[in-house]
Design brief:
Number of strands: 0
Shape: elongated
Radius of gyration: 20 Å
CATH class: Mainly Alpha
CATH architecture: Up-down Bundle
Structural class: mainly alpha
Number of domains: 1
CATH topology: Four Helix Bundle (Hemerythrin (Met), subunit A)
Number of helices: 6
Order of helices and strands: HHHHHH
Length: 208
């Protein structure tokens, strides 16, 4: 069964078990999905409201984008676990001959790259979702302002959690160019995203 098909209690029970996956990567993706969903919800609570007639286009377009990001997070949540399972599968490969050892090593390197790409994708999605959230703060349904603050917190957790998963995987990658690329790109995203998340939270906090 896919993670996205589980009930909430089933998902958290599985995560609390001795199964190595789902783990932090899938948790980060779920945090991202929740953040994007909260932003979409605030948009939905604005659409059709006469009081917010002048921002209807913004609310409708932002709701659509928020739901698209939510769906992308949900998709990458399962793909992150699949990427980890590919690493686990390498340990079952034979290693009796030099050829088998070489094949096993190559497979592990490829699997680790896969485990780097999925959390990095989460980072990209989280930054996009933070930009979306920032664009609607103070403009949509004021009764749901706190939900945008919660969205920012969820998205901040998502990008930081994903970053930790990027780092732990590139630590085992021997392709230095690949490792350096993802370390640099990830840090650049983080440097933009964290101040943005904090600014959203502070603006919401001051509005309450």
């Amino acid at each position: 069964m896919k993670l996205v098909e589980m009930k909430v209690n089933e998902f958290v029970d599985l995560m609390a078990s001795d199964e190595p996956a789902p783990g932090g990567g899938s948790a980060a993706a779920l945090e991202g999905a929740l953040g994007a969903a909260l932003t979409a919800m605030v948009c939905a609570l604005t659409v059709g409201k006469k009081k917010y007639a002048d921002v209807q286009e913004l609310a409708i377009e932002s709701q659509k984008k928020g739901n698209e990001l939510k769906a992308q997070f949900v998709d990458v949540m399962d793909r992150d676990t699949e990427a980890f399972n590919a690493v686990s599968a390498v340990f079952a490969m034979p290693k009796d001959t030099d050829e088998e050892k070489a094949a096993r090593k190559a497979a592990m390197q490829e699997a680790l790259k896969g485990c780097t790409k999925t959390p990095f994708e989460m980072m990209e999605l989280a930054y996009q979702a933070l930009e979306l959230t920032r664009s609607v703060v103070g403009k949509l349904n004021a009764s749901a302002a706190s939900d945008l603050g919660c969205a920012a917190l969820s998205l901040k957790a998502a990008i930081q959690g994903a970053w930790l998963n990027v780092l732990i995987n590139i630590g085992g990658i021997q392709d230095q160019a690949f490792a350096d690329e993802y370390r640099q790109k990830g840090q650049a995203l983080l440097d933009k995203a964290l101040p943005l998340a904090d600014a959203i939270y502070q603006e919401v906090l001051e509005s309450l």
